[in-house]
Structure formats: C-alpha cells, structure tokens
Amino acid sequence: MPARTLPPATALDAKRHPLIVTGDPGLLDDLLRLAAAGSAEVRVAPDAVAARQGWMSAPFVLLGADAAAGCVRAGLPARSSVIVVTRSRDSEPPWDNAAELRAEHVAVLPTAEAWLVDRFADHASGPVARGRVVAVLGGRGGAGASVLASALAVTGRRRDLDTLLIDADPFGGGVDIVLGWEHMQGLRWPELVDASGRVSPPALVGALPGEGSLAVLSFDRSELEGVPPQAMAAALDAGRRGRDLVVVDLPRRFDEPEVMALTTADRAILVVPAELRACAAAKRVAALAAVHCPALAVVVRGPAPGQIEPAEVAQALDLPLAGTLRPEPGLTRALENGRAPASTGRGPLAELCRTLLADMKPRRHRMVAR
Ligand SMILES: Nc1ncnc2c1ncn2[C@@H]1O[C@H](COP(=O)(O)OP(=O)(O)O)[C@@H](O)[C@H]1O
Ligand SMILES: [Mg+2]
To answer: How do residues 190-215 score in pLDDT, each as one tens digit?
Structure first.
C-alpha cells in the first residue's frame, strides 16, 4: 500500500486550517475521511509536542482521545473550539482531560460523523464564514469601554452587519442597559449558564434579545459572578460562525473566559481617558491583555485636563493608536433615557466606530455578489 502523504504542517497556514491531533492511525483515517467529505483541508499533529505549534491559532482542534492526556500534561492552554474525538468501541472517553482543556464537545464516532462533516463543511465554506471578533476593555474603571463596545455594535447594525454584542463583565450592570434594552425579552447569561453551559450555537443567537441585525448576550441584574469558560467558548463560537461582527465588552480582570475572548479576538481596543492616572492604570491592563491578544490598540478619550496628547498616551503604553474620542455631547442623558450610544449615527462615537469598521461588509451581501 502506498504511504499516505499528508501536507507538512508548516505548508498550511495554521490560522486557516483545523488541527487534528492524534497518533492513532485508525482514528486519523476516520477524521481525514470526514474532513474530505466536508471539503476541508486540515493540519495533522501526531502528539502534544507537534500540536503546540498552531494549537491556539487553528480555527478548531479535533483532539483524539489518545492524545488528550498528553496535551494536558504538556500544559497546552484551554482554548475555544476544542472537540475531543473518540470511537464508541474505544474505552471510556477522557472526560477529565476534556474538562481540563475546556473542550466544547466530546464527539463519539460513528454517531457524531454527520455532525463532524458539517463542522468541516461550515469551515470549508471559506474565511468569509468567520465573523470578526473585536474585544473592548477599559484602562481604568469608567473609561468608556462598555459605551464604545455598545457603539460599535450599534454601528455594526446600522451598517447591516449581523452583529453579536457579548457582555463579558459580570459587574458592569448588564450591557443591555447601555443599549436601552433591559426590558427586552430573550435570554441573558444566567439562563444560559443554568442550562449547564451546553448551548447549540445557532439556537443561541436566536434566543437572545435583539433588533434588526443586532443581538446581545448580556448579564442581568442578578448575582451571577461570571460565566463558565465553556459557555463563553460556545458564545464566541456561535458569534464567529453565524455573525459578521462579534463585539466583546470585557472587564479589567482576566480569568479564563476573558482570556478566551482575548485569544479569540482579531483585535482588541483599550479605552484610556487622557489623564495621567488613567495612563498609569492602563499600563498594567495593557501588559496583561497584550499577552493574549497581540492585535491590541488604544483609543484615547478626551477631555485631556492636563493637555496630554493621544500620541503620548499610545507611546506611554507602547501600543498603536486606533483612534481618539472627543467627549460625546449629551451621552449621559441619552444613556439615562435608554438611547443607545451612536444610534443617531452622528457624533464622535459614531464617527470613530465607522472608521473602526470601515473595511467590513455584510456577509449576506458578499454571498449575493459572488
Ligand atoms: N465617549 C464618551 N463621551 C463622554 N462620556 C463618556 C464616553 N464614554 C463613557 N462616558 C462616561 O463614562 C461612563 C462610564 O462608561 P462605561 O462605558 O460604562 O465605562 P467602562 O465600561 O469602561 O467601565 C459613562 O456612563 C459616561 O458617563
Ligand atoms: Mg464596562
């Protein structure tokens, strides 16, 4: 029998191709067959050592049950979209290792074959199938992160982008309030988390409060102190797969779900008021966030009581400057009256958001245009 030739892992772009990690030839054959059925090209790593390269950047990882323990021992970090794959005739699935790696699913073959083919096929429909994830965080409390995140989401909607706003700050009071949507029907985090974190992505977005092309996954006014990483992974995955734009409103502390959002983000924006003390506080946040998201840039928000220049702030933080924000006239009153930031399409926030999203087009239109 001729030896099977696989493209060398380095020949394929790690960001574009799903990663299969298994040293079990039978399981590898099965997975390659399913990938082919879904018209997807894959990268293959036989063990944890080889899997390290591209582990974080692959769009999703299929981890053979044989390699799961090795990946845990090798300290590969938890990430979103890890699927542990096993066969029904093999011994018990490696539940503990799957939990350790925060696996999204344990897929048992042959039962899960059709599901896996779909997963490959979804992916193979091209990079356009993947929404852009923008994480927003503040350099200090009250910096304006939630306002900017909401303004970005509202601008996404105004531009007809299918947009998902994910509230990742359990102590922010609920980002639905920033939109003026606190009375709108639909699921919030507590209901999703009560449902034990197992959510089906397409169903998820449909069950959320939404209007037009914008949906929001928000905390409410309950005492929930955070979400399990699996729930965050499912939300990010649903957003990336089903929406054009996912905006994540992050807190300034980074536990597992926040790290997951940052590692998934295509870009992250740190909002920093143009004040000396805010810069000092932001320096620490920037250092922590940059570890997880290299595409971190700063938005400097005025006024600048000490005449500090945006470029000086960016330089002090050693980050590129993504934009500046003059104070938004009438913002506080608009928020109190339930009017979402940037909803009129006028003012500094709307202007900045349009610039930040300038290169994005709705996927629905792109598909028609082909
Ligand atoms: N672009 C802006 N212009 C004027 N005031 C703002 C702006 N962004 C935020 N603020 C003010 O700062 C407050 C806190 O903003 P918020 O987005 O909740 O901060 P964070 O999420 O960073 O803690 C808002 O309620 C508003 O009064
Ligand atoms: Mg906030």
So the answer is: 888 765 445 555 678 888 999 999 99
The response to whether residue 333 sits with its C-beta less than 6 Å from ligand 1 reads: no
Q: Is the link from the previous residue into 110 a cis peptide, with omega within 30 of 0?
A: yes
What is d(CA 285, CA 273) in angstroms, rounded to the nearest whole number?
13
| C-alpha–C-alpha distance, residues 315 and 100, integer Å | 39
CA 43 to ligand 2 center in whole angstroms:
39
pTM equals: 0.73
Name the residue of 331, 335, 352 whose CB sits within 8 Å of the most ligand 1 atoms, as the mutation to test its pocket: 331
pLDDT in tens, 137-163: 999 999 999 999 999 999 999 999 999
* 303 Cβ inside 6 Å of ligand 1: no
Ligand with minimal distance to 302 CA: 1
What is the residue-averaged pLDDT of the chain? 88
Q: How far is the CA of 144 from the centre of ligand 1 (A)?
A: 3
State the distance from the centre of ligand 1 to the C-alpha of 109, rounded, in angstroms. 50
CA nearest ligand 1 atom 17, residue = 144
